Amino acid sequence: MADVARLAGVSSQTVSRVANGQPGVVATTRDQVLAAMRELGYRPNSAARALKRGEFHTIGVILFTLATIGNSRTVEAIAMEAARRKYATTLMPVAAPTQDAVSGAFSRLEELAVDGIIVIMEVHLLNDAAITLPPGVHVVVVDSDAGDRYTVVDTDQASGAGQATEHLLGLGHHTVWHIAGPQESFASERRTAAWRSTLEDAGRPVPPLLRGDWSAESGYRAGLALADEPGCTAVFVANDQMALGVLRAMHEKGRAVPGEVSVVGFDDLPDSGAFTPPLTTIHQDFAEVGRRCVDAVLRQIHTRPGVAREHGTTLVPTRLVVRDSTAAPPATAPATTPRRRAARR
């Protein structure tokens, strides 16, 4: 900085104001300083400035897995929005959903000097108070039911599942079968509860629940079982990947989609419209989830000390995307009460 000041013929304080984008420097002087910086190859020490101001323009992200489409697309959306707001992101995967692992991730991110943290938790740990987050940290939680204690941003899981079930009932199907995600997933259980309550509110029988693990292979296995159910004419699947497996199973079993069985997914993956047939599904706005997460954590970062933090849950709306995998049931479809079976896992 002293070298730049000598070359530009100004004080070090003036160089500092120009480097930090502060007002109070006339245009000609600012141009002199910038020219001197370029000539000398000077770049301000952003780390030193961050330490001085206590702001590092970095957001940490803690999550348990990137294997699921929802998590990976949420992380992508957070990173894109953070970059647009001139913030970097630091990803911290957690190997096991335990208190020690989560506390360790928070400690590591604090060592890396992040301004705030977004936690993507797809299990019920926060809901059951099995895990608590460190106090005094700027934190936003995704995919949880802990809005009474934290700032939470989530997709409107219940509305999406309700729309999917109502769509199938509206086409004339007597009831709707469901292939759920893992039981430990908050999103899966939210969708399952909404599917069940929608059927009950309509006075329709609730078929036995089948479960998968979000993968196409697990959807395929559940689809093979449903293909043998003569009364199954409509299936709501908890994500598009499992729905892809269901489409394969129905094809192999000779049950036409949507001629004999209608299928609805959840996520609206970029490839969902290229399935055979193109998949009717529930659209999740992952970009909006990312925007709201970053906006919420930045509001905390910029809130004056001593001001109470806002708790509560922000739900991002979902919408039904109708394609070619759903239709009215065949005229010969039996309107029978589904026979009971053990829930598959």
Automatic annotation (TrEMBL):
Residue segments, region Disordered: 324-345
InterPro entries from the UniProt entry: HTH_LacI, LacI/GalR-like_sensor, Lambda_DNA-bd_dom_sf, Peripla_BP_I
Biased composition (Low complexity): 326-337
Keyword hit for Ribosomal protein: no
PROSITE patterns recorded: HTH_LACI_2
Keywords, in A-Z order: DNA-binding, Transcription, Transcription regulation
CDD domains: HTH_LacI (cd01392), PBP1_LacI (cd01574)
Any matching Pfam family: Peripla_BP_3
Molecular function in Gene Ontology: DNA-binding transcription factor activity; transcription cis-regulatory region binding
Coiled coil: none
Chain ranges of the HTH lacI-type domain: 1-53
Protein name (record): LacI family transcriptional regulator
Lineage: Bacteria, Bacillati, Actinomycetota, Actinomycetes, Micromonosporales
